[in-house]
């Protein structure tokens, strides 16, 4: 293929689909192009590329395809800059693979199945030409919703207001209870894996907003139902508190990030980690011991000296909303023991349970009770 031929082809083809169809006929080899999330963008019909793309119809096969690329080192951060010829056991044929670049960043992959010989130079020319179309396509596809979501995640109200306006213009009318999810993975080629996950999960719900911003992956869920992670063994998710208005998403994003960071399994809810979060934030500001009231400090010191359990009882009593029975059940002790300890706390330390509740709860927060 000569450069002049390619130039003429680009000049007469208005879309990537038309370009790929004509280029495949010209080189007499099947061609297909995938985006950076490994979703099919387009492929040739003559010669037929579909016979090589059965894995796209099956999530497990698709994941296997991505894993094969990872194992062969084809998903490095710099991308495949020169055509790489490999024998693919799945296809039982040599294929050329090369990344399609825009401003030195990979935006997709071009694959040519070698049914008829073709030079590396021709494959490189095809990738360069495909970049012209793919850049335009990716800039326009779904950009308005993604832009709206990005604006909603900003801290300033002006950006959030503009984000809401853009979202309405796209026809997004979902109302209800929302949660923000932060998605991450610990395996190599993190961004590629997250993009693939995001693309797959958004197919299941057209109203699912998501995006990768500053290499962080977020999803806006218009329900309280968690993502089914059974099919995604390498993904873990943190969930924010629930909310009803699309305001202060930056705060909910931080909640979700914290939950994902603290997740011991595949997922975690910020709601279950509030005390831990507040404790960590307070600790950054000032020495935590300075927040504990003197009366409670004396109570804790008394416990240490005489091996009593007054502080433990006090905390459980407040957490049980001043129910002596629930306190006894929570500590697995007799009700009379609870009554005695509470009397001693009032007598020895001059603590008024209701008036001093804020001081007690602050001490509980400091001591992570």
TrEMBL record:
It holds the Pfam family HTH_30. Residues 311-364 form the PucR C-terminal helix-turn-helix domain. Gene3D superfamilies: PucR C-terminal helix-turn-helix domain. Transmembrane segments: none annotated. It comes from the Bacteria. InterPro entries: CdaR-like_regulators (IPR051448), PucR_C-HTH_dom (IPR025736), PucR_C-HTH_sf (IPR042070). This is PucR family transcriptional regulator.
């Amino acid at each position: 293929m000569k450069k002049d031929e390619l130039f003429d082809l680009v000049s007469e083809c208005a879309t990537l689909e038309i370009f790929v169809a004509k280029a495949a006929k010209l080189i007499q080899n099947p061609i297909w192009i995938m985006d950076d999330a490994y979703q099919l963008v387009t492929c040739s019909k003559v010669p037929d590329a579909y016979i090589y793309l059965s894995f796209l119809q099956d999530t497990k096969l698709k994941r296997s395809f991505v894993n094969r690329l990872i194992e062969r080192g084809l998903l490095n951060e710099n991308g495949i800059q020169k055509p790489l010829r490999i024998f693919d056991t799945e296809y039982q044929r040599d294929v050329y693979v090369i990344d399609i670049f825009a401003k030195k960043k990979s935006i997709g992959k071009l694959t040519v199945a070698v049914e008829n010989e073709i030079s590396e130079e021709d494959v490189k020319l095809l990738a360069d030409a495909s970049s012209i179309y793919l850049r335009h396509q990716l800039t326009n596809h779904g950009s308005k919703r993604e832009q709206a979501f990005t604006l909603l995640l900003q801290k300033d109200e002006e950006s959030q207001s503009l984000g809401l306006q853009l979202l309405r213009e796209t026809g997004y009318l979902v109302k209800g209870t929302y949660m923000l999810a932060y998605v991450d993975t610990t395996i190599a080629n993190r961004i590629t894996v997250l993009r693939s996950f995001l693309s797959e999960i958004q197919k299941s719900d057209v109203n699912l907003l998501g995006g990768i911003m500053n290499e962080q992956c977020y999803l806006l869920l218009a329900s309280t139902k968690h993502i089914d992670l059974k099919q995604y063994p390498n993904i873990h998710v943190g969930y924010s508190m629930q909310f009803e208005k699309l305001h202060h998403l930056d705060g909910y994003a931080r909640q979700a990030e914290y939950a994902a960071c603290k997740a011991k399994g595949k997922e975690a809810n910020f709601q279950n980690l509030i005390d831990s979060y507040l404790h960590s934030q307070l600790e950054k500001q000032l020495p935590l011991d300075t927040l504990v009231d003197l009366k409670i400090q004396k109570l804790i010191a008394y416990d240490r000296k005489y091996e009593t359990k007054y502080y433990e009882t006090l905390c459980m009593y407040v957490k049980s909303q001043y129910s002596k029975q629930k306190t006894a059940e929570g500590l697995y002790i007799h009700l009379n023991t609870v009554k005695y300890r509470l009397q001693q706390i009032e007598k020895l330390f001059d603590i008024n349970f209701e008036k001093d509740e804020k001081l007690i709860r602050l001490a509980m927060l400091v001591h992570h009770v």
